[in-house]
Amino acid sequence: MKRIRTEDAVGHVLCHDITQIIKGVTKDAVFRKGHVVTREDIPVLLSVGKENLFVWEKTEGMLHEDEAAEILRGICQGPYMKATAPKEGKIELIAETEGLLKIDSRKLNRINGLGEIAIAARHGNTVVHKGDKLAGMRVIPLVIQKEKMDAAKEAGGEEPLFRILPFKKKKAAILATGSEIFHGRITDTFTPVVCQKLEEYHTEIVEQKILDDNPEETTKEILRQIDRGADFILCTGGMSVDPDDQTPLAIKNTGARIVTYGAPVLPGAMFLLAYYEDRIPIVGLPGCVMYAKRTVFDLALPRIMADDRMTAGEFASMGEGGLCLSCEVCTFPNCGFGK
């Protein structure tokens, strides 16, 4: 940092904010630290009493905050997102499509842990829409050591910290099980709820069928729908541990790989996810999906629609944040459920 005459400051970078006060009109920074002084700025600076300025002096091995922010952008930005121009040392990433936001949390924590670096983002594994702000990044000081930014690049590796997985257009079959609805004793109120949730992802529903409590027939129907081109199967009913609830058995007998039967999420503990031939998701939905505003299904569905495979370990980790508080006014996903 050095002190120079304002008239000689063109092309130099301010090291501090310049405040303009006009009584009854404004009291704000007319120029922010990091601003590159132009010839047009000189009269304004003189009008606020700045005949001398403190400006950044280029030093070997040091980077300006805008340069450092651009390095962070290169580390963070993945496909389907755009970056804003540096402003006061900060760059933001904006979604260019609808999809699932993925964050490499391990790398993010490592880079933020270097010190003097701030990368702030929304939660990963959440739905984003075109135009949504994803993250903001900057360094804390006006100038930072090039060595630290080199360390950040090394920690970031070859793959970007942030990715958006666009949602896929899937053909779904909904199979409602239960003798009470099969024989017309009650109305199927479960399928309309599932249809409504799938509509949010522009899913084509190729079949809606009601089945009796017969696991052999359910198995056959699942395989039949797959043969007919369905690439997503949802089974409702028969998911509890009662002896006559045999939907999990029917799914297992298709030969599908069971990822989980049960999740530490309330509502939704009896949720089942399996993959047939390791590519077609088969979901067993517990009864709570029919009446609860938000459940484990709302956490898993975006990942299924983005073809983002879930693991048993990920389900096991859902316990923290897995309790829906059933708020009087639901603000999901802008709440702690599933976070």
From TrEMBL:
The GO terms this record gives for MF are: metal ion binding; molybdopterin molybdotransferase activity
Catalysed reactions, semicolon-separated:
adenylyl-molybdopterin + molybdate = Mo-molybdopterin + AMP + H(+)
Explain the purpose of this protein. Catalyzes the insertion of molybdate into adenylated molybdopterin with the concomitant release of AMP.
Q: In which pathway does it act?
A: Cofactor biosynthesis; molybdopterin biosynthesis
MoaB/Mog domain segment(s): 173-306
GO BP term, example: Mo-molybdopterin cofactor biosynthetic process
Name used for this protein in its record:
Molybdopterin molybdenumtransferase
Q: Superkingdom, according to UniProt?
A: Bacteria
**What Enzyme Commission number(s) appear in the record?**
2.10.1.1
* Cofactor(s) needed: Mg(2+)
The family classification in the record reads: Belongs to the MoeA family.
Could you give one GO CC term from the UniProt record?
A: cytosol
Q: Which Gene3D superfamilies match?
A: MoaB/Mog-like domain
Family annotation (Pfam families): MoCF_biosynth
Q: Does the keyword Cytoplasm apply?
A: no
Q: Which InterPro entries does UniProt cross-reference here?
A: MoaB/Mog-like_dom_sf (IPR036425), MoaB/Mog_dom (IPR001453), MoeA-like (IPR038987)
Which of UniProt's keywords are assigned here? Magnesium, Metal-binding, Molybdenum, Molybdenum cofactor biosynthesis, Transferase
Major enzyme class: transferase
